[in-house]
């Protein structure tokens, strides 16, 4: 089973995990890390690396982060590279949202690459304008 780590600006990561557990129940191998704004980037990297190591399953780890270019995503990238140097299979995707999680978590038995593709599809396909055409009166 592939592990999943959610890394985002506080309190988004734990909120996303809470939403997911509301829908799916207990999710072993899925952890959240809320990046505090005042945390030293090196410490953030170490803490994310620890979460990656704790979530690592047979299929590796898929890490979902919020905003590309922001400190949590940047330090997550560093942590993923450090984990990879230690032999872990890690993929990092940015732009985490609820549809991405819902398309990811039930399919953790898939390969890391297939799971990443499913997550990307869920994240992008879950963003739609739904107000449609104005209703006739």
From TrEMBL:
Domain of life, source organism: Bacteria
GO BP terms, alphabetized: phosphoenolpyruvate-dependent sugar phosphotransferase system
A Pfam family per the record: EIIA-man
A GO molecular function held by the record: kinase activity
UniProt keywords, alphabetically: Cytoplasm, Kinase, Phosphotransferase system, Sugar transport, Transferase, Transport
Cytoplasm as UniProt keyword: yes
Protein name per its UniProtKB record: PTS system mannose-specific EIIAB component
Naturally occurring in which organism (per UniProt): Pigmentiphaga humi
Source lineage: Bacteria, Pseudomonadati, Pseudomonadota, Betaproteobacteria, Burkholderiales
């Amino acid at each position: 089973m592939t592990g999943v780590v959610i890394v985002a600006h506080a309190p988004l990561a734990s909120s996303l995990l809470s939403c997911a557990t509301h829908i799916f129940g207990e999710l072993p191998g899925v952890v959240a890390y809320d990046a505090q704004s005042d945390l030293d980037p090196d410490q953030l990297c170490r803490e994310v690396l620890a979460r990656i190591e704790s979530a690592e399953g047979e299929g590796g780890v898929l890490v979902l982060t919020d905003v590309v270019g922001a400190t949590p995503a940047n330090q997550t990238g560093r942590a993923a590279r450090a984990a990879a140097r230690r032999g872990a299979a890690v993929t990092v995707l940015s732009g985490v949202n609820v549809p991405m999680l819902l398309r990811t978590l039930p399919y953790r038995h898939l390969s890391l690459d297939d799971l990443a593709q499913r997550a990307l599809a869920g994240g992008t396909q879950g963003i739609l304008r739904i107000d449609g055409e104005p209703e006739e009166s």
